[in-house]
Amino acid sequence: MTGGPLPAAAAGAVLVAGIGAWWVRRTFVTVTVRGYSMMPTLAPGTRVLMRRGTRGVRKGGIVVVACPEPDTAWRGKAPITGDLAATEWYIKRAVALAGDPFAGEPVPEGFLAVVGDNRHSDDSRRFGPCPMDQVLGSVVRTLG
């Protein structure tokens, strides 16, 4: 057998596999939990699989959001780009979506309230609702 071109079916399979791998890497991210804000649910060092984007965000679900600024919270922050190295991240529980009550008033449209499972967490109780454009994605499951 010579080293000629791949048959069309094999070349198609390689192309499909490559596109599938690209889609998975673009859609899902593995995140390692640092800190204690989600204890006892998620301990430091726990790895989670996260789906990028806001489609999977639901009340009671766990989300990854950009860290707020100490003085201005999320006000004035540019929308995130999805570049994991571009910002610091929080992992929190989504407890209220737009229209749901939080801290005595409804969460505004385009926002959600996030809190850590640990009562000493820095979260929406301190910084207010988080804009949806600061959400990197939602946790799908824990890994090992």
Q: Could you please describe the fold and organization of this structure?
A:
This protein starts with 7 loop residues before the first helix and ends with a strand. It has helices spanning 8-27, 124-127; strands spanning 28-32, 47-52, 62-66, 89-97, 101-102, 105-106, 111-115, 130-131, 135-143. It is an alpha+beta fold. The longest helix has 20 residues, at 8-27.
Unreliable segments (pLDDT under 50, ≥5 consecutive)? none
Query: What's the SSE pattern?
Result: HEEEEEEEHEE
The structural class is alpha+beta
Mean pLDDT equals: 88
Strand content: 25-35%
Q: How would a crystallographer describe the biggest sheet?
A: 7 strands, antiparallel
Can you tell me the overall shape?
globular
Biggest sheet: strands side by side, in what order?
1-2-9-3-4-7-8
Radius of gyration: 19 Å
Number of helices: 2
Strand element count: 9
Summarize the structure.
This protein is α+β, with helices and mostly antiparallel strands and 144 residues long. 17% of the residues lie in helices and 31% in strands.
Question: What's the topology here?
Answer:
Layout: H1 8-27, E1 28-32, E2 47-52, E3 62-66, E4 89-97, E5 101-102, E6 105-106, E7 111-115, H2 124-127, E8 130-131, E9 135-143
Antiparallel strand pairs: 1-2, 2-9, 3-4, 3-9, 4-7, 5-6, 7-8
Q: Could you list some keywords that capture this structure?
A:
144 residues; alpha+beta; seven-stranded antiparallel sheet; two-stranded antiparallel ribbon; 9 strands
